[in-house]
Structure formats: C-alpha cells, structure tokens
Specification:
The protein is an alpha/beta fold and about 180 residues long. It is built from 4 helices and 8 strands. Strands 1, 2, 3, 4, 5, 6, 7 and 8 form an 8-stranded mixed β-sheet that branches. Helix 2 packs parallel to helix 3.
Length: about 180
C-alpha cells in the first residue's frame, strides 16, 4: 500500500511569521552580526533552526553550534551559538541578558513577545528581501504590522517571512473526530 494514501489534508490554519528579536542597545543589525553571539530557538529540529542554518550557510557564517551546558563563564569563539529551550526559558534568558537574540516563528499576537516588548527595549531585525533571497524559495515574504509591540523600530511595518500551518490527519480518523479537533 502506498503510504501517501493513508493521510488526508484537512485545512490550512494560521500563518506563522519569522521574528528575529534583539535588545535595542546591542550591535546586531542582521544575520551577519551573529558571530560570537547566542541565539534562543525552541528546538534543533524546529523550522526556525532550519531557516537559521540556511541563512548562515548563504552568508558563509558556518553552521550554528548548539550549546549544551551553558553558563555565564562559557567562552564563545567566532561562531554562532544556539540554546534550544522552551519559549518561557528562552525569553527569560533573553530578558536577563544571557542570550543576545531570539529567532522564532510565531503568530502576530504572541503573548511572550508582547510581554517582553512591554518590559524591555527590543527591536525586530528586518529581513532584506534582496539579500535574504534564499528564504523566498521556501517561505513567503510579507510586511507585517508591529505597532502593537513596544519596540524601538523606526517603522511600524517590518519585512519578514511566513509559513502556513496546515492540519493533516490519518485517513482512518472519522470526520466527526477531525471536526471536533479543529
């Protein structure tokens, strides 16, 4: 039996946008400025980490290194480092200045980003559609409204990329089970 016959596409859900968040007072202005820095991501198998690796490769920055045991005494070389943790841990590490950036796919009304922007000075790093053209092969490009966030960005719109979440189910699920899930 062909494995593809056992799945059903159910529906398209929401868009998730790529957020590259830094503190307003640091010297990170693009992906190129990440060497020797620590970035928070949700998981090494996340789509955000895959996109980060694609960008690092396209800028010849080397593959990001995952930090296992991190402490304030960790010596950083000229590489890009990643801490993989749940969103709460990463946002707290960022807030407490233990990591320099956050690289996340999220909906536009993420409560963690809203809370963070109300407690500390952050800015969203825009993606340059011309320079980051490699992303256009796997993601859609869109200007997003960031006015609801209290950021230090000069504009209320930033250029970002998004992906669309979809729901795919095993074809043995009943229509009622799928209906009540959605």
């Amino acid at each position: 039996m062909n494995e593809n016959h056992s799945i059903n596409f159910v529906c398209s859900l929401n868009r998730e946008y790529l957020f590259f968040i830094v503190k307003n007072n640091n010297n990170i202005f693009s992906i190129r400025n990440l060497k020797g820095k620590i970035i928070g991501i949700q998981h090494k198998n996340s789509y955000a980490f895959t996109v980060l690796k694609i960008l690092c490769e396209s800028y010849d920055l080397g593959e990001p290194q995952i930090l296992g045991d991190f402490s304030a005494n960790t010596t950083l070389e000229d590489k890009i480092y990643v801490i993989e943790a749940d969103i709460n841990t990463n946002f707290n590490l960022f807030y407490n200045n233990h990591i320099e950036a956050l690289f996340y796919f999220s909906g536009l009304n993420n409560p963690y980003i809203l809370s963070l922007s109300s407690k500390t000075n952050i800015k969203f790093i825009e993606f340059n559609q011309t320079e980051d053209d490699i992303l256009g092969t796997v993601l859609k490009n869109k200007d997003i409204d960031i006015e609801k966030y209290k950021t230090k960005n000069k504009n209320i719109y930033i250029n970002s990329y998004y992906t669309r979440n979809i729901l795919i189910c095993n074809s043995t699920l009943t229509t009622d089970a799928i209906y009540y899930t959605v």
